[in-house]
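Example record for the data management plan.
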Amino acid sequence: MKQLFLIRHAKSSWSLPLNDVDRPLTNRGIQDAHLVSAEVSQELPQTYLFWSSIAKRASETAILVAQNVSYPIGSIQFKAELYTFDVKKLEQIIKSCPDNCDHLIVCGHNEAITNFVNKFGDRFIDNVPTSGFVKIAFNTNSWKDIVNGKTLRTIFPKELK
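Corresponding structural encoding:
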């Protein structure tokens, strides 16, 4: 059994003239990431890998989540290839996870996350919002073989306000 925890980065700022990869979180994004991660902490197993996009908004979200679930920040793996909006690329990256790991958290970007959830989960989600969390379980022993997962839980900020 493999379990995947997808987190869409928190709300980011468009107010500064920055490259997309450098956009930071807004105050609302920071608050929403704290709200969701407080709920997420009860969903997480004892051990897992934590991967994040290198984009500032995703890495800041991953760090906030890690702090709130007592995961060592130095153990987060920041991956350039997770700075993607393409579901096929996201799928390739997730399927590259080592099989000795049964639980993986990925903090990344839309449209890749929503499209992945709808391709691999069993519940249609119109849009995974910023700071949104989706837990999917796969009845397989290899990440390379993931198909037809079961969407076990969603946590979205508006549900917690």
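Summary line stored alongside the record: The chain is about 30% helix and 20% strand.
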